[in-house]
From TrEMBL:
Keywords: FAD, Flavoprotein. This is Oxidoreductase FAD/NAD(P)-binding domain-containing protein. Its cofactor is FAD. GO terms for molecular function: flavin adenine dinucleotide binding; FMN binding; nitric-oxide synthase activity. SUPFAM superfamilies: Ferredoxin reductase-like, C-terminal NADP-linked domain. One of its GO terms (biological process) is nitric oxide biosynthetic process. InterPro entries: Flavoprot_Pyr_Nucl_cyt_Rdtase, FNR_nucleotide-bd, OxRdtase_FAD/NAD-bd. PANTHER family: NITRIC OXIDE SYNTHASE, NITRIC OXIDE SYNTHASE-RELATED. Residues 30-93, 119-182 form the Oxidoreductase FAD/NAD(P)-binding domain. Pfam families: NAD_binding_1.
Length: 306
């Protein structure tokens, strides 16, 4: 490769069912944190074209088209909200009914690369962490790290990931294995509580960072599990454990990128959008009880690797 030359690999992934419904009067909800917004741009562009072809003169005459609502999360308006102006124009034109943007400015790797980091992301919550291990790989290549023994400049990078089945959600399985072999990822697991001693040492003793990404209910349960780990490993009561998590947040060492609210009435069957919570139940593997000996892994196991 010549100096200054850049080689890129382009992967094309086919998603035949990922398109607007044939019946345009149906409402659609789009959820796309970070780069996940990209495919939805074609949705609102297509809707604009359809409305122009039908010569829809005003918002009141939009009866042929269902609501189109976007939920989008990014780090900051300057970094990721590249379609901000376009979204506002689409809303004014009546193409988008509403759009909601949530910012997570602190959700990035720590400046000090020698600090250990723990990433927790069941289901689609794994998405932003991909940029973490990709950035770590680039940093290691730039520093010309020849072997795992020379990885002293970089702290541990550990991922806790839960999914329904290897075939359904574990889309980065091969990539994770490659990153572990290359020494980018130290380990990746599917149960948080069973690695309590390591979690405590990395976060409390070594000053590491703890990241959570996913459903708001999941984030709450993961926080509770972390507090249980702090109680057990740090020999502290519940109040002190909760205070320590608060201090981690204040020190910008506990990072959360949470989205959505899953609402289900008691007795209702589990819907498809609740399936991520299955991964959560296995990931936290904890019962909301006051006694540590009650925290046995009672959740039904979910296949992680085939």
């Amino acid at each position: 490769m010549c100096p200054g030359e850049v080689h890129a690999t382009i992967a094309v992934v086919s998603a035949p069912s990922f398109h607007l419904p044939e019946k345009s009067s149906l409402p659609i909800i789009m959820v796309g944190p970070g780069t996940g917004i990209a495919p939805f741009r074609s949705f609102w562009q297509q809707r604009m074209i359809d409305m122009e072809m039908m010569n829809v003169p005003s918002l009141e005459d939009k009866k042929h088209f269902g609501d189109m609502v976007l939920y989008f999360g990014c780090r900051t308006a300057r970094q990721d909200n590249i379609y901000g102006k376009e979204l506002e124009d689409m809303e004014k034109a009546g193409v988008l009914t509403n759009f909601y943007v949530a910012f997570a400015p602190s959700f990035h790797l720590p400046e000090k690369s020698s600090l250990p980091i723990i990433m927790v992301g069941p289901g689609t919550g794994i998405a932003p962490f991909r940029s973490f291990w990709q950035q770590r790989m680039i940093d290691m290549e730039m520093m010309n790290v020849p072997s795992l023994e020379d990885k002293k400049h970089f702290g541990d990078m550990v991922l806790y990931f839960g999914c329904r089945t290897a075939r359904q959600d574990n889309i980065y399985g091969k990539e994770l294995e490659d990153m572990e072999k290359a020494g980018v990822l130290t380990n990746f697991y599917d149960i948080l509580l069973s690695n309590a001693p390591y979690v405590y040492e990395a976060i409390v003793k070594k000053g590491g960072h703890f990241y959570v990404c996913g459903d708001v209910s999941m984030a709450h349960d993961v926080t509770q599990t972390l507090e249980v780990i702090l109680q057990d490993q740090g020999k502290m009561d519940a109040e002190n454990a909760a205070q320590l998590v608060t201090k981690l947040r204040e020190a910008n060492r506990f990072h959360e990128d949470i989205f959505g609210v899953s609402i289900r009435k008691p007795g209702e069957p589990r819907r498809s959008k609740d399936q991520t919570m299955l991964a959560l139940e296995y990931l936290t593997a904890a019962v909301r009880a006051g006694k540590l000996d009650a925290l046995r892994e009672r959740a039904k196991p979910i296949l992680f690797v085939s």
